[in-house]
Amino acid sequence: MANIIENFKPFIGQHCETTATGSLLNQIGITFSEPMLFGIGEGLGFIFWNMKIMDFPFIGGRIKPDALTQNIARNLNLKLEVKETSSLKKAWENVKNDIDEDTAVGLKLDCYHLDYFTNKIHFAGHYVAMYGYDENLAYLVDTRQQGSKVKTSIKSLELARNEKGPMSSKNLSYTIQDMKKGYDLKKTIIISIKNNAKDYLNPPIKNIGFEGVLKTSEEIKKWFKSSKNIERDFKTTAMLMEKGGTGGALFRNLYRDFLKESYELLQIEQINEAYKIFSEVAILWTKISTLFDITGETQNVEYINQASEILIELSEKEKRAMEILLSI
Q1: pLDDT tens per residue, range 141-172
Q2: Which of 14, 63, 248, 265 is geometrically suited to a Cys-Cys bond with 241, CB 3.0 to 4.6 A?
Q3: Rounded Cα–Cα distance for residues 278 and 255 (Å)
Q4: What are the beta bridge partners of residue 80?
Q5: How many other C-beta atoms lie within 10 A of the C-beta of residue 221?
């Protein structure tokens, strides 16, 4: 009972979903940079999410889980097959059968249970690629920060995949096939940019997109006042935003670099204009996470007030950049 895909080439990335999906694409001979994958996946977004069952609010800098991979597959004319089940037995068979056919599998799970995770936080919107198993271990690809090629026990993987709660799915696994339909990268980039800009500028609710960034400028003040553990809340959020791959500068850096690559390929001036704005935006998001970190250490509201002012500026800048991109 062991099967490890030979000559498997992991995607080395900073963000979990692009790393997992990039690893599956590598296997079918499609290789892009992480920023290009994120851009083709129409990945840039924003959400401020607060529910009573959560320990503290969630600040996310991308579109909702699963949508990134769906967009990549659609925009590159690839076949995405997604499987979900409530049965632990069926969930394992779904993955085992694919690997037995030498097909790497993407998994969505809660990273809390994974053996190699040192920061034990429940986050059920995490992604890994799986390329093998033996009697005791699953062989996975995670982000560069987590060690890239990693292993976890079969039992811990089962717990991670079956976890309930915000952003969780029912033992979700997915594979990607090349249907040999081909794609025109230049056209794909333009379609992806316009789709992402349109969605970002037209949020369905006020805590998403540029309106969400603006709303967050007020919400963080309320959060500070009501928090029962300021140190935990704001230091953990700073870590998640900057290193954990949920928001902050990471996604702005990726989108900035995607726009740079796209401009070099297409020479469309609006893309260059938006790239310059996102270069400023990325720096400001890092400032936000730094201020959150200092807030956690000092428990001084002054740093939250500073972050609030920057968020107002960020909302305006990101709105302007996306309006420019929508006009291409």
Answers
A1: 999 999 999 999 999 999 999 999 888 999 99
A2: 248
A3: 8
A4: 176
A5: 15
Is the pLDDT at 78 greater than 80? The verdict is yes
- pLDDT at residue 241, as a whole number: 84
**φ, ψ of residue 161 in degrees (nearest 5):** -75, -30
Q: Over the Cα atoms of the chain, what is R_g? A: 20
Helix axis angle for 16-27 and 67-75, nearest 10°, is: 30
Amino acid at 171: N
Q: What is the pLDDT of residues 242-296, one digit of tens each?
A: 776 566 678 999 999 999 999 999 999 999 999 999 999 999 999 999 999 999 9
From CA 159, how far away is CA 157, in angstroms rounded? 5
Cα–Cα distance measured from residue 234 to residue 59, given in angstroms and rounded to the nearest whole number: 11
Do 152 and 128 contact (CB within 8 A), yes or no?
no
Question: CB neighbours of 218 closer than 8 A, spacing ≥ 6?
Answer: 308
16 alpha carbon, distance to own chain's centre: 6
SS3 content of the chain, % helix, strand, coil (to 5): 55, 15, 30
Beta strands in 50-96 (DSSP E): 58-62, 78-83
